[in-house]
Amino acid sequence: MAEQGLVLDMRAIQDPFEILWIEGSPYVDVSGGALWEDVLKRCVSEFGLAPRSWTDYLSLTVGGTLSYAGVSGQTFRYGPQTSNVTELEVVTGKGDTLCCSQTENSELFFGALGGLGQFGIITRARVVLQEAPDMVRWIRVVYSEFEEYARDAESLVEEYCFDYVEGFVLVNSDNRANGWPTVPLGPEQVFDPTHIPFTAGPVLYCLELALHYRNADHPSRVDTDVDGLLGRLRFIQGLKFQVDVTYMEFLLRVKRVEEHAKGNGTWDAPHPWLNLFVSKSHIVDFDREVFKKILKDGVDGPILVYPLLRNKWDSRHSVVVPDSDMFYIVALLRFTPPPPKGPAAELLVAQNNEIIEFCTSRSLDFKLYFPHYQSREDWIKHFGNQWARFAERKANFDPMAILAPGQKIFSRTSQPQPPSIT
């Protein structure tokens, strides 16, 4: 993370937590070291408000996720977390503490959002809020064909029917870590494989949806709304699962995964995760070669795949995404026990590299999310036509390359260096 350097634990910074109303809209000022989980609990319990965009796992710091993007099932509607902040306080590589926004120190504001920590340390953020719902209808439906799954997922994110849209790949077997048992939402629910068509391949696809509602909403109205929306979809009949949970329970759903992983020892094992953005135009090819072949036995954890809309991402930010109007996030979230129970981490890293090599050799339109390259040349390819801007921002705000050296983008120097655009 920081070879011959320091790693800062930002959670020690005092939380400035303050609710603001600006031109009739609510915001919250929070520390860059605040955990999203704590922001959620305090906003909801004290004010009935909540941020609009989340990550699936909330025990992450505000500054940390804003330095990447912050993606979850609300991103199709509101954009990533980087699109839901209006002001930052940043300590730059020069040692300056600057307040920045779209109109004040704007280059630092846009650069720090998704900037991988290369330009400064985010010490405060002003986050957009909205009224928090009371309850969530949480739904999972299963598909045997990727094309049908993709058509339904894409239509849902374009029409804003649900408040949350995600999805994942599962192995077409009774494997507890990778297969049918991963789909049901409640302990009393059972996955009946007799509903699966005989034409199904080695993997299936699960569309995960959520609809917010208030305690005052009549249950029959919620049922009618959900049934009307699901009636348009082409999932396998008989493989629908749903539960009603509080808004807080839904957003903290991954907490149970964390507790289970800590109980069985996989939480502290190496996690060779891989996160990609893949263009809509190439996602079927990716499914054919990666999901159905390379990953047909699963990854001992979730394989997320769901569409996002390009127009919800601000191109002035440092995050790099595919050029197409719609692209998919693909996340291989391995929870593999260490040897001798599980494979060596090196084998899983090799599998990740095989997937990246496939995407590169077939000229797929893709970008790594949470990128990590070993050479400056690979970073230049990653940023493409945004590299010159990224390098110029580095020269302006961290000319001695003090920050985030572990990513190996820039070499530390005793003198400021002009940006390289070669």
TrEMBL record:
<dbReference type="InterPro" id="IPR016170">
    <property type="entry name" value="Cytok_DH_C_sf"/>
</dbReference>
<dbReference type="InterPro" id="IPR050432">
    <property type="entry name" value="FAD-linked_Oxidoreductases_BP"/>
</dbReference>
<dbReference type="InterPro" id="IPR016164">
    <property type="entry name" value="FAD-linked_Oxase-like_C"/>
</dbReference>
<dbReference type="GO" id="GO:0071949">
    <property type="term" value="F:FAD binding"/>
</dbReference>
<dbReference type="Pfam" id="PF01565">
    <property type="entry name" value="FAD_binding_4"/>
</dbReference>
<feature type="domain" description="FAD-binding PCMH-type">
    <location>
        <begin position="1"/>
        <end position="132"/>
    </location>
</feature>
<keyword id="KW-0274">FAD</keyword>
<protein>
    <recommendedName>
        <fullName>cytokinin dehydrogenase</fullName>
        <ecNumber>1.5.99.12</ecNumber>
    </recommendedName>
</protein>
<dbReference type="InterPro" id="IPR015345">
    <property type="entry name" value="Cytokinin_DH_FAD/cytokin-bd"/>
</dbReference>
<dbReference type="GO" id="GO:0009690">
    <property type="term" value="P:cytokinin metabolic process"/>
</dbReference>
<dbReference type="GO" id="GO:0016491">
    <property type="term" value="F:oxidoreductase activity"/>
</dbReference>
<keyword id="KW-0560">Oxidoreductase</keyword>
<dbReference type="Pfam" id="PF09265">
    <property type="entry name" value="Cytokin-bind"/>
</dbReference>
<dbReference type="InterPro" id="IPR006094">
    <property type="entry name" value="Oxid_FAD_bind_N"/>
</dbReference>
<dbReference type="GO" id="GO:0019139">
    <property type="term" value="F:cytokinin dehydrogenase activity"/>
</dbReference>
<dbReference type="InterPro" id="IPR016169">
    <property type="entry name" value="FAD-bd_PCMH_sub2"/>
</dbReference>
<dbReference type="InterPro" id="IPR016166">
    <property type="entry name" value="FAD-bd_PCMH"/>
</dbReference>
<dbReference type="InterPro" id="IPR016167">
    <property type="entry name" value="FAD-bd_PCMH_sub1"/>
</dbReference>
<keyword id="KW-0285">Flavoprotein</keyword>
<comment type="similarity">
    <text>Belongs to the oxygen-dependent FAD-linked oxidoreductase family.</text>
</comment>
<dbReference type="InterPro" id="IPR036318">
    <property type="entry name" value="FAD-bd_PCMH-like_sf"/>
</dbReference>
